[in-house]
Amino acid sequence: MSLKQFRYKFQEKLKTIEKETRTYEQICLEKLRELGRSTAAEWSAAMGYSNPNSLSKVIRRINIKAPERLKIYYNRRPRQYEAL
Fold it and tell me: Which residues constitute the domain of residue 25?
């Protein structure tokens, strides 16, 4: 195996590893980024849940661990969320 082939295979493996190691919070933020600015009910419906409160713990975890990735609009009812 040449060095060029080895590098190519190594880069392909790195790409698959990066795809596999996403947390549920990251998956939810990606879906919110696709939706744009939306409420928790719309966000949870897009994730496939029937209950609008299904993502409440996930939203809380994102807000605690990485508040810079989620913008919450408190001045409206219901609250709206936007992924940054």
Answer: 3-83
